[in-house]
Structures are given as C-alpha cells and as structure tokens.
Amino acid sequence: MEIFRDFIKWFQYITIGVLIVCAVNFSLSGTDTIPLMTLWQILLSGFLTTLITMLFYSGKKMTYIKCGIHYVVLCGVMIPCGYWFGWLSFNAAEICMMILSVAVVYLLAFVAYYLIDLKQAEKINQRLKEKYPN
Description:
By secondary structure, the protein is an all-alpha fold.
C-alpha cells in the first residue's frame, strides 16, 4: 500500500511540474490555449516518468550518481515521447529545450517532495512532543 501512495505522490508532483513547464513553453511560443490532446500527453508522460522514478527511488538511498542516471533515463524517455507527441523535432535546439524542461520538472518535483515531507516531519515531531513531553 505504501508503494501505491508513493506512486500517487510522485505522479502528482511530476505531472504538475510537466503541466507548468508545458504552460510556460506554450506561452513562450505565443500559443494561447493548450490543445486537448496535450493534456492526455501530459498525463501519459507523468505516468511514464513516475514509473521510472519509482524504480530509482522506491525505498533506496538517493546518491548523486543515481540522480544523474535517473535524469539521463528521464531525458531518454521524454525526448522520444516529445517527438511522438509533436512537442519537438529532432534538432539540437529543441532537444536541448526538452533536456532543460526535464531538468525544470525534476527540480520542481524534488523541491515539492522535500518541502512537503519536511512539513509532514514537523507535524509528526510536534505530535510526538505533545504526546511525550519531557
């Protein structure tokens, strides 16, 4: 059950990050609306990258090397997905933009994960102090 909760948590963080990055990219390109199909593509890319994230971080210690490999694998998935979704062409500028977009989503998801977990830890510590005062 814990794995399912972690999956849902990561899916939320990653999908919201992908949505934010897509909204910014669409705004920068001068597009006023996001096509309906793009919303499904955001959900699919969030699902795929959450699966990858769960494989790398489910109950395992995070290291810089593992983070680097995880990021490379995410880019290796999102570049073909971006091409398939029509988000990019196979040229250097658009591939670099996808790599940057993956980095932004990575950063947003991990900052959200850290801040929310920090807040939950503070609540748990406060409850423990209330229950077991010195």
